[in-house]
Design goal:
The protein is mainly α. Helices cover 72% and strands 0% of the residues.
Length: 281
């Protein structure tokens, strides 16, 4: 039984059988999964009579809307911080914390399909990313043109990895197996432990374990994080595939959009960090 590393997808219906490289397809054998999904929401009959089943178009549309809100919020945040640097720290702290809380509410409160929560998360993460991008690039390069180029490279790299992993999933070049899932989740746990340990160590030693100081160890660590984020997309695609084949209601596409956005945000942050190491004078 496959699971996903993304907390937003933890409560998706469980399913037996292969779901590789079938993103967006419907199968007759999904009746059991449809029943399980309905039981989760305690109204299985309603979806068959009053609600349209989710399609790949719904996933694309809801994800595009979510990313659109995030992008607009990030641009506004960046220019506000550029005009008043005192806003940088509050935007990063408040945006990041509120976004984290909203993800926890959506994940553990089973509100992944609530568009208000999803769009609120996108707005908060946009505020966070705009301020974070300004702070991070201003610490590395003083020239605003070079800073904007660095951000542009991070954005292109993020979506390049996203579409690359989508092709890998669609073609079945890498199969989402229980073993792969365990490896990715194990890697994520290890990275999280290292991050927390580095943060604690930084209180006592300058730079902590050196995971974020721009040196060789920091570069290797960022590459590992980027690789884990990239492979996490495979699990996210597979989780979305299960929902589509289970004929989940159309509103479930908001949960898929939220999960993909969470991974995209993490990937962007790690790519921006890595690029800044190579541009640090």
């Amino acid at each position: 039984m496959r699971t996903t590393s993304n907390p937003v997808f933890k409560n998706l219906p469980k399913q037996e059988g292969s779901g590789y490289a079938t993103f967006g397809s419907a199968q007759a054998g999904a009746a059991q999964v449809t029943q399980e999904y309905g039981q989760q929401y305690q109204a299985p009959e309603q979806y068959q009579t009053t609600q349209r089943a989710m399609t790949i178009d719904d996933v694309v549309t809801k994800t595009a809307i979510t990313l659109g809100v995030l992008t607009v919020a990030a641009i506004i945040s960046f220019f506000l911080v550029n005009n008043n640097e005192a806003l940088a720290a509050p935007f990063v702290i408040v945006g990041g914390l509120v976004g984290f809380v909203l993800v926890m509410v959506a994940s553990f409160g089973r509100k992944m399909d609530n568009p208000a929560i999803v769009l609120a998360y996108a707005a908060c993460e946009g505020v966070f990313l705009g301020a974070f991008s300004f702070i991070f690039t201003s610490l590395v390069v003083a020239d605003s043109v070079e800073a904007s180029v660095l951000i542009g490279q991070a954005v292109l790299g993020t979506f390049g990895v996203f579409f690359g992993m989508l092709v890998v999933y669609k073609t079945g070049a890498i199969r989402v197996t229980p073993r792969l899932t365990r490896m990715i989740i194990g890697g994520l746990i290890g990275v999280l432990v290292l991050m927390v340990g580095n943060l604690i160590a930084s209180f006592f030693t300058d730079g902590g374990f050196g995971l974020r100081d721009g040196g060789t160890i920091a570069i290797v660590f960022s590459l590992v994080c980027i690789a884990l984020a990239a492979f996490s997309f495979l699990l996210d695609f597979d989780a979305a595939d299960q929902l589509i084949r289970a004929q989940a209601p159309e509103k479930a596409a908001w949960g898929v959009a939220l999960g993909l956005t969470v991974t995209l945000v993490w990937l962007y942050v790690e790519i921006l960090r890595l690029l800044s190491y190579f541009n640090n004078d």
